[in-house]
From TrEMBL:
<dbReference type="InterPro" id="IPR002763">
    <property type="entry name" value="DUF72"/>
</dbReference>
<dbReference type="InterPro" id="IPR036520">
    <property type="entry name" value="UPF0759_sf"/>
</dbReference>
<protein>
    <recommendedName>
        <fullName>DUF72 domain-containing protein</fullName>
    </recommendedName>
</protein>
<dbReference type="Pfam" id="PF01904">
    <property type="entry name" value="DUF72"/>
</dbReference>
Length: 275
């Protein structure tokens, strides 16, 4: 039984005073046991860089690398053999930390494109697990065809729950920015595999973030009782409190599932001195 929790990134200026000094990913991994691999969406890192990620985290840490947008958004999963080969070679040093490769598809990729996704999934190496995030509203109106396709490939559907965020108008600059940029996605809580993945967007007010995730506490606790091993990523518009919130989410689930091990206590930052 395991619950992995984390954030959208492993480094943010607002976290520096809370994290131990040193390697940023190593410090982050003292707080959370998972992270979204957003950096690989924008550019393929070198193997040397990925090797340092592996060295800074334990084998049970989950880093979910996103397949580059060159493959998902520009080529739209067609003619991707060489780009995919380069990406897979780069992330190989992660080993078991690459809990799933994340296929985030553009909002224009709809049910009419399912044959393309089916071909892409069929040709992927079986060494990895895969997770797919869709944003076209028609997938949520009638999810059956996508669910059947993903189940055939033991792939998970990644929901991005933004319902709590869009429930009331923004009240800060960060929220106003997110209001314009974040997708309006419904809450979807159906797990297709033994490793469901959730993205949850709260508010800058921690109390409102916690109130909004209460349905997920129940859902995730239920998954754990079923023998699943979920990963939950907590977002807020400014992400200033995201690591602490992710740990709090873990604590709330653990209160309902007492057999769930606690997260390790983070290494405290060293006090500043004058000498």
């Amino acid at each position: 039984m395991a619950l992995h929790v984390g954030c959208a990134m492993w480094s943010l200026k607002a976290w520096q005073s809370r994290f131990a000094p040193g390697d940023k990913l190593r410090a982050y991994a003292e707080w959370c046991n998972a992270v979204e691999g957003n950096t690989t969406f924008y550019a393929v890192p070198s193997r040397a860089t990925v090797t340092t990620w592996a060295e800074q985290t334990g084998p049970d840490f989950r880093l979910l690398p996103k397949i580059p947008k060159r493959i998902t958004h520009e080529l739209r999963l067609t003619g991707t053999d060489e780009d995919l080969r380069v990406f897979l070679d780069a992330i190989e040093p992660l080993g078991p930390r690459a809990a799933a490769l994340w296929i985030q598809l553009p909002g224009s990729f709809g049910p009419a494109d399912l044959a393309v996704l089916a071909r892409f999934l069929r040709d992927l190496p079986t060494d990895f697990r895969y997770a797919v995030e869709v944003r076209h509203p028609d997938f949520f109106t009638d999810p059956r065809r996508l669910e059947e396709l993903l189940a055939q490939h033991r792939a998970e559907w990644v929901p991005f729950d933004t319902t709590a965020f869009f429930a009331t108008p923004p009240t800060s600059d960060a929220e106003r920015d997110a209001w314009m940029k974040k997708p309006r996605m419904p809450r979807r809580d159906t797990a297709l595999t033994d490793r469901p993945i959730v993205r949850y967007l709260g508010r800058d007010d921690p109390a409102r973030t916690v109130a909004g995730w209460q349905p997920w506490v129940e859902t995730v606790a239920g998954w754990l009782r079923e023998g699943r091993s979920p990963t939950v990523f907590v977002h807020t518009p400014d992400n200033a409190d995201a690591p602490a919130l992710a740990r709090l989410f873990h604590d709330e689930v653990r209160a309902k599932v007492p057999g769930l091990p606690a997260l390790p206590v983070p290494v405290p930052p060293e006090p500043t001195t004058l000498f």
